[in-house]
From TrEMBL:
<keyword id="KW-0234">DNA repair</keyword>
<dbReference type="InterPro" id="IPR001126">
    <property type="entry name" value="UmuC"/>
</dbReference>
<dbReference type="Pfam" id="PF00817">
    <property type="entry name" value="IMS"/>
</dbReference>
<keyword id="KW-0460">Magnesium</keyword>
<dbReference type="InterPro" id="IPR043128">
    <property type="entry name" value="Rev_trsase/Diguanyl_cyclase"/>
</dbReference>
<keyword id="KW-0479">Metal-binding</keyword>
<dbReference type="GO" id="GO:0006281">
    <property type="term" value="P:DNA repair"/>
</dbReference>
<protein>
    <recommendedName>
        <fullName>DNA polymerase eta</fullName>
        <ecNumber>2.7.7.7</ecNumber>
    </recommendedName>
</protein>
<feature type="domain" description="UmuC">
    <location>
        <begin position="14"/>
        <end position="254"/>
    </location>
</feature>
<dbReference type="GO" id="GO:0042276">
    <property type="term" value="P:error-prone translesion synthesis"/>
</dbReference>
<keyword id="KW-0539">Nucleus</keyword>
<keyword id="KW-0227">DNA damage</keyword>
<dbReference type="GO" id="GO:0046872">
    <property type="term" value="F:metal ion binding"/>
</dbReference>
<dbReference type="GO" id="GO:0005657">
    <property type="term" value="C:replication fork"/>
</dbReference>
<dbReference type="Pfam" id="PF11799">
    <property type="entry name" value="IMS_C"/>
</dbReference>
<feature type="compositionally biased region" description="Polar residues">
    <location>
        <begin position="619"/>
        <end position="628"/>
    </location>
</feature>
<dbReference type="Pfam" id="PF21704">
    <property type="entry name" value="POLH-Rev1_HhH"/>
</dbReference>
Amino acid sequence: MPVARPETSDSRVIAHVDMDCFYVQVEQRKQPDLRGLPTAVVQYNAWKGGALIAVSYEARKYGVKRSMRGAESKEVCPQIQLVQVPVARGKADLSTYRNAGSEVVSILSRKGRCERASIDEVYLDLTDAAETMLAEAPPEILEVIDEEVLKSHVLGLNSEDGNDAKESVRKWLCRNDADRRDKLLACGAFIIAELRLQVLKETEFTCSAGIAHNKILAKLASGMNKPAQQTVVPFSSVKGLLDSLPIKKMKQLGGKLGDSLQSDLGVNTVGDLLQFSEEKLQERYGINTGTWLWNIARGISGDEVEGRLLPKSHGSGKTFPGPQALKTFASVQHWLHELCQELSERLQLDLDQNKRIAHTLVLHATAYKVSDSDSHKKFPSKSCPLRYGTAKIQEDALSLFQAALREYLGSYTAKIQGSQNNHWGITSLSVSASKIVPIPSGTASITKYFHGHLSCSSTKQSQNNLVEEGNESYSEVNVTKPQIEFPGEETMIKYAETSSDQLEDKIDLLNDQNPCCSSKNQARDEFTQETVPVSTSGSEHCSGMNQSQLMKNYSGEEPCVKLSMPSLNRQEQKRKAVKDKGTCSILRFFKNQDPSCAPQKLELVENIEDVKAPPLSPGIQSRSNNCLDHNRSELSKERPEDAGDSNACGSFQMNKEGEEHGVTILMKLTPQSLTSYHQKFNKKCVPGSGLKSGITR
DNA sequence: ACGGATATGACT
DNA sequence: TAGTCATAT
């Protein structure tokens, strides 16, 4: 829940950084010839040329859109370059993009608390850094100002022609009598410009950013001027911005809630929301959402930047549309094996690189069923404790699938056998691992953290370890955990917690086959028999572990979850802010590709060999809950009208883009009438609210 | 026959 | 807790 910051609401400096058509950039870095050409990344291509999942800005000019088919894109842009997403184990493999995202995070996390929001987006809390800069090297004393900073877009700033633009931005940035909040944002703009340049130098990727007093505004701003630009939202421009902003452009309001607002309350812009009292909104949408909406209408949000550089879960899935639906148990088993293999590999990598362990395995699937009264019932999700080791994961996932299938089919017992079956089909499958926590530091039994087995792992190299921030303490995470050793298997882990480096981390676990404790359900599959007790065994699972090695490569990260821990990146770095690179700008970077800036490429792709489907073995159990569905959604209205791309925002969007190697030449900002904005900072937030409520005293 | 593969967070 | 939904890209 949002923690109230004392004092003056939002004088925080928050930034949202968004990579520009990221997958395309990753492919263009790999194949420089593609730079500057209309390009798109497609996954699979057998059917209509594949689906586009990223489109370069050059291609967008031709009307190419995400979610077009490759063939379609060729129609509007015949020269478009289509690059396929790597495929491994018969499915799309996004690891190269994940790794590239990590490279970026490791750079962006240098100046303040950083939250990895997705594979290509992060939020930064630059408050401390901005304050330090303001105190030690405020903009007004700088003589040289980075080009990139001058190219910032400042909402509400009146600047007519292009020449004038930079000059007025410069004035705004360096104004001596500015509101303190504006000065902080100005510092944020400097810091972000520098970070973006750093990202460019080290990774060759461009990104766009928004700098504002809270996350939601920063996010909104980052999408306003793309690619390769940054936008600042001064406090005084907030009202002007929101008043005319289409409600659905606001994060979280792009779906059903936004539809409901429009159709049920006639709210079309965020400004329209102002007419409703908090009570009114709460009565219709619930306490938390109501308060959240009331705050959002005023540009208020107390949502904090989390301080998390790593993902909270890992998943691997695939869809099997229509004709490809899986209709035999064997095919399901085959795909589950592939998916689990990928998942296991990623988990092992996470363990090796970040010293984290996932505790829960979840299986999701979607299925259809013909002629059955409740043929609309959804295929239930199932989960169980996660045991490390590819084979174990495969086995457990299969068991979960069986349990779910039985439940899905209900009394409808089919005793079909081998091949086909006319009753059901699986149209998507996915396995994921969640509840990932850092391994305890110290020698205490780590064993316990492995619910079982560590497979022998071929610890892959680790190249990019983000989070190198050398923070050494994992500590607090489990101070509370009592340790209980598993009799019989002593595992010693030497792995110093403090001397953060040379640990030979190595977990020597006993080898073993040791069957685990999970009670097994004997049911093989619904083809061969129908009753299967799904026992819910207690939970501890035994273990036996094969051996595994933990690599060095530290990664530090705050313990996830909310163990209030002082943010790590927080230390002050005396902002030498701008200085050194006086005039380096992103534009220039591309103009004169300075070879010296070339980053070291990392080897990111790897192939995996196939695996033969091992004999299946039932294992796990799951708490089979009988899920009754009583889905009541307060917002039932459905209004599938899609707002294509995400760029653009109401009256504030105003730039033209002219490309040149992925860089845009910006245009002017349109003047915006800004009325002073009086807000009432006296609404409290409801802790734990669904949509995090705003706070600010 | 779909936008696919992921991911996060809230609610019950 | 587990499982479902909503949202986003």
